[in-house]
Design brief:
single chain, alpha/beta, five-stranded parallel beta sheet, 12 strands, about 40% helix, elongated
Length: about 240
């Protein structure tokens, strides 16, 4: 099994890589986010990701990796607060290990996420259609970053597009506010709650589909499964009475 170990502390990385190699793993070390992204070409089976990197926050790197690869990610960090754990899992991490840790437990967790990934891959094929998301009248092309309503393009900002993309992944399913903030703004700062509300309001105004984005009070938001009601057809003019 090949591991990508992203750790900026050279001594910690050297010790960890040595132990992992003794347990039979192939290990690629990377000490920066840029180097980690380059080493994705080696097709790692599991990534061990530290959060304190010199050129990027580990949370941001996790989101960038998850956007291009479905490889299991274990965050290995000294940040032990619950909000950081939740934030990391929302961004796509498969597990979260707090330093200092027991090496035996870490190795066990590596095997667990690897088995889980293997079962997932064997259970169903990849879904290339996921690049396009459709909810009734709303069509979203994630590759071209284009949104249209009834075939008419809607002009969205980058954040508005990202927000709609998260909501449209599972039409009819409520997405919690914390998860939206984590995935779209890559932070767990609660001050972004107001920013989220402003972007939702702007998104509704631009889509012009009444009821397409529902608010679930105290929880979050969802895109309705039918993408909002269909526009009413024009009323035919009444025919003049026969004489």
């Amino acid at each position: 099994m090949r591991l990508l170990v992203v750790e900026d502390d050279v001594r910690v990385a050297a010790a960890l890589c040595s132990v992992l190699r003794r347990h039979g793993f192939e290990v690629d070390p990377a000490c920066t986010a840029a180097e980690a992204l380059e080493r994705l070409v080696n097709e790692p089976d599991v990534i061990l990701l530290d959060l304190g990197l010199p050129d990027s926050d580990g949370f941001e790197l996790c989101g960038r990796i998850r956007a291009v690869r479905d490889v299991p990610i274990i965050m290995v960090t000294a940040r032990s607060d619950v909000r950081s754990r939740i934030h990391g899992l929302h961004l796509g991490a498969d597990d979260y290990v707090v330093k200092p840790y027991d090496v035996g437990e870490l190795i066990a967790r590596i095997h667990v996420v690897s088995r889980r990934s293997a079962r997932h891959d064997g259970a169903r094929p990849a879904e290339p259609a996921a690049a396009e998301l459709i909810a009734g009248r709303i069509h979203l092309d994630r590759l071209r970053r284009v949104v249209s309503v009834d075939g008419v393009p809607a002009s969205l900002t980058r954040k508005e597009f990202d927000l709609l993309a998260v909501l449209a992944r599972r039409p009819g399913v409520v997405c919690p506010r914390d998860q939206l903030i984590s995935e779209v703004w890559h932070t767990n700062w609660q001050g972004n709650q107001r920013t989220l509300e402003v972007h939702i309001a702007s998104l509704r105004a631009k889509l012009k589909v009444p009821g397409a984005i529902q608010t679930v009070r105290g929880v979050g938001y969802c895109v309705t499964a039918d993408g909002g009601p269909q526009p009413a057809p024009p009323h035919p003019r009444s025919a003049p009475p026969h004489s």
